[in-house]
Amino acid sequence: MDASNYLYISALLFTIGAVGVVVRRNAIVVFMCIELMLNAANLSLVTFSRINGNLDGQVMAFFTMVVAACEVVVGLAIIVAIYRSRRSASVDDASLLKR
Amino acid sequence: MQLALEVGQTATPEAVMFWILGPLSVVAALGMLLVKKAVHSAILMAFVMVVLAIFYIAQDAVFLGIVQVVVYTGAVMMLFLFILMLVGVDTSDSLTETISGLRPIAITAAIGFGGLMVALLGRATLGRDAVGLSAANANGNVEGIAFALFSTYVFPFEVVSALLITAAMGAMVLAHSQRITARPTQRQLSINRFRGKSLGTAAGLPGPGVYARHNAVDVPALLPDGTPAPSSVNASLEARGDMLDYKSFDLAEVNTQIEEEK
After folding, report:
1. N or C: which end of chain A has fewer CB within 10 A?
2. What is the pLDDT of residue B20?
3. B146-185: pLDDT as tens digits
């Protein structure tokens, strides 16, 4: 089996995640779609590591996971803070700068 | 681990695994966009993450596969579900468009972008066979990654640890809320209860359930005159649409049923 099949799956998952970020309105679902995009990038890093036969890609994927964990922690704290003040988890309601 | 390495090196079992799990993961990711409730999205997301972990293990990235399961499906998804519970189930996502024409544009752009990515990635390998990681993993995958992490990448590793600590501090600051009014004393609570607008809740709210018929929390209690008391059911159950209809437990309805049976 050609290893680049994993790259196609990774591209598809990344695209689906990008559509989710644009289309969905619930901040938590938007956030999960961002996670999906990060995971898709990780899959392509691991696949390239296998294609090239060294472990640098896996180390990069490891760093991506750590950064994604930080991002989840801060992002969810922001969602909770917005929910506390506005009683809504919809990204359309947080539009104070527009007015 | 031996099994995983074998799966990575033999072509056919990996292809079978890939052609079963690959389409399933894409379908689950698409389902994430289409389902209405955020909890269902989270479950589909967890499925995609487990599939990715299997892909990692199949590609000789055993350490990353285990980390994926532990960090993503273990910690991150639990955090997501925890926040979903905190933010509340009544904030269901409406799937209607708020910006007109957003959805067709998004889908068109996605098809273009996805096509571009797939075409590019098809060229990226130029049909070259994968080298494979059997040489890099000669001393074991964990040892190989540890060597890279603590020699070449030791500075990024330390920076990332600082980032983690900063993120934890930031989350604590963001999630902290200060009480701006004094906590009501028991005396004040009592005064509010009896000097309020009505004495209806002076003895507390009625409990849910129709005794002797259906004593569950999702059925509103019947008042002495047979009317239901919606205030007896938890507000979040009501918002979620899980409140049962009281009609089938109504006394008058039961009486007519019994008479019909006679």
Report:
1. C
2. 93
3. 999 999 999 999 999 999 999 999 999 988 888 888 888 9
Which residue of A24, A47, A69 is in closest CB contact with B76?
A: A69
The dihedral region occupied by B131, where left means phi > 0, alpha psi between -120 and 50, and beta the remainder, is alpha
* Structure tokens given for B210: 């129709």
Closest CA to B34 of A34, A18, A6, A20: A20
The angle, 0 to 180 degrees and rounded to 10, between the axes of the packed helices A4-23 and A27-52 is: 160
pLDDT in tens, B53-84: 999 999 989 999 999 999 988 899 999 998 88
In A44-83, the residues whose Cβ lies within 8 Å of chain B are 44, 46-47, 49-56, 58-59, 61-63, 65-74, 76-81, 83
* Residue in chain B nearest A21 by alpha carbon: B33
Residue of B nearest to A90 (CA): B93
Task: Name which of A1, A43, A76 is nearest B14 (Cβ-Cβ).
Answer: A1
Say how many domains are in chain A: 1
Which CATH number covers residue A11? 1.10.287.3510
Residue A70 domain-assigned? yes
Instruction: Confirm whether A96 is domain-assigned.
Output: no
B133 neighbors A49 (Cβ within 8 angstroms):
yes
Between A82 and B50, the more confident residue is: B50
Q: Which domain holds residue A52?
A: 4-90
Coil, helix or strand at residue A44? helix
Rounded to an integer, what distance in angstroms lies between the CA atom of residue A79 and that of residue A70? 14
**Does B150 reach chain A within 8 Å, measured CB to CB?**
no
In a domain, A79, yes or no: yes
Distances (CA, A) of B123 to A5, A7, A8, B126, B154: 12, 11, 11, 5, 33
Question: What is the distance in angstroms between the Cα of B37 and the nearest Cα belonging to chain A?
Answer: 9
Q: What is the ipTM of this complex?
A: 0.93
All residues of chain A having their beta carbon less than 8 Å from the beta carbon of residue B41 are 29, 32
From CA B164, how far away is CA A67, in angstroms rounded? Answer: 8
A32 and chain B in contact, CB less than 8 A? yes
Task: Give just the sign of the alpha carbon dihedral A74, A77, A82, A88.
Answer: positive
